[in-house]
Amino acid sequence: MELLQFVYFSRRPNVIIGVDAVEEMIETCKENLRAASSQNSWFHPEYVQLRHGDALHLPPEDESIDVSQNCLFTSSQTVI
């Protein structure tokens, strides 16, 4: 859902990149983006690039990223 927040403010094709090391999370995100598209007239799936991997090994050029956010969700039993 954080991707949607970034998209809401940019609304430009292929400028938001979502990355996850778990393929099932990428698939779940795709489903969520399809749902967002059907529920929000301002959202278009082409605004988001989804990539399998980790953020340390992405192809963007140096100094081409304006904002980066790392989100980690843990078990409710974990105290942070």
Strand count: 2
Helix content: 25-40%
Instruction: Give the class from helix and strand content and strand pairing.
Output: alpha+beta
Mean pLDDT: 80
Order of helices and strands: HEHE
Shape estimate: globular
Strand content: 5-15%
Number of H/I helices = 2
Question: Would you give an account of this structure?
Answer:
By secondary structure, the protein is an alpha+beta fold. It has one domain. 32% of the residues lie in helices and 12% in strands. It has two helices and two strands. The chain has helices spanning 2-10, 23-39, and strands spanning 16-20, 48-52. Strands 1-2 form a two-stranded parallel sheet. β1 (16-20), α2 (23-39) and β2 form a beta-alpha-beta unit. The chain starts with a helix and ends in a 28-residue tail after the last strand.
Question: What's the helix and strand layout?
Answer:
Blueprint: H1 2-10, E1 16-20, H2 23-39, E2 48-52
Parallel strand pairs: 1-2
